[in-house]
Amino acid sequence: MTENLPATYVEGFHDLEAVKKMEYKQLGKTGLMVSKLSYGGGPLGCHYGIPDENEAIEAIRFAIRQGINYIDTGPWYGQGKSETIIGKALKGIPRKAYYIATKVGRYELDFDNMFDFSAEKTRKSFKKSLERLGVNYVDVLQVHDIEFAPSLDIIITQTLPELSKLVSEGKVKNIGITGYPVSVLKECIEKSNINIACVLSYSRYTLIDDTLLKYIPFFKEFNIGLISAAAPCMGLLTDQGPPAWHPADDDVKKQCKNAVEYCQNHGSKIVKLAVWFSMQCKDIDTHLIGMMNVKEVESNLATLHDGITDKEQQLLNEIQNKYLSNIKGRHWENKELTIYWNSIKK
């Protein structure tokens, strides 16, 4: 076997040339060599429309053969639907061919049952996740959106210790945390004595928000693996536009829509520019992008391998100058938290 191939390479299963083309990087202290482009299972739930299960299964299998070796999901996405589809896709694929990550802590659509960070629920939920995925261990188990816990102490004293027990039982290889405010991820790592190996940050290194850059030196200092998700800003930077629930302010949506239309009028898709831009950050270990079909996988692989043309680079500069630089509030931090806690108090 060629020296530079990742540990996930399986002769006779993978497309060898595609794997050779893929860039792999160590995910912090996890020991996992992950593909630069990773597979996001978020759209396989219910938050971005109803996925076609057969198309999704085909896309996942195709992605793994092409060298994408990191797959992320969670029970929150369609109340287990994403995990179920991914589990079906993984049947018959050698277990060593991929790394799988799932989550605990965020579950139901209604506010009263949306979050539960207790040790009991964590263990129960994770057992169900293993069943849906059809595996007996996961490579990464993450606490989902930790900012929604009543206090960070609950994460530190209940959730993370339970994850640590699952590690000692061999059911989990590495522990991670996710959240929108990057400051909360940093604070959790500083305060916890549990070995947090990686963080998942979403929509924080994009064409409209580079907040993540401020925190990269901290994560690197502690050898924390860095997963950056949602380069297209959860639909803002796509031809389809954001889903109705998107928490961004109207000004953000308007400027992004203007940029989308400007790209369309010039024969380009903004999502390609958004994905390419995010991938230029060398300090991010893997870029997690939700993909619902083979066409989307092929498109993102092409962006990764071939980059953008001079014309597209010029177009990118134009939309930044004309529209995206005019955005006032670049993020929606605390907005969802406020809505959530106001609803709970009722």
UniProtKB/TrEMBL annotation:
Pfam families: Aldo_ket_red
InterPro entries in alphabetical order: AKR (IPR020471), LGALDH-like (IPR044479), NAD(P)_OxRdtase_dom_sf (IPR036812), NADP_OxRdtase_dom (IPR023210)
Highest rank taxon of the organism: Eukaryota
Gene3D superfamilies: NADP-dependent oxidoreductase domain
GO cellular component: cytosol
Gene Ontology MF annotations: L-galactose dehydrogenase activity
Record-annotated NADP-dependent oxidoreductase domain positions: 36-319
Name this polypeptide is given: NADP-dependent oxidoreductase domain-containing protein
Native source species: Aphidius gifuensis (Parasitoid wasp)
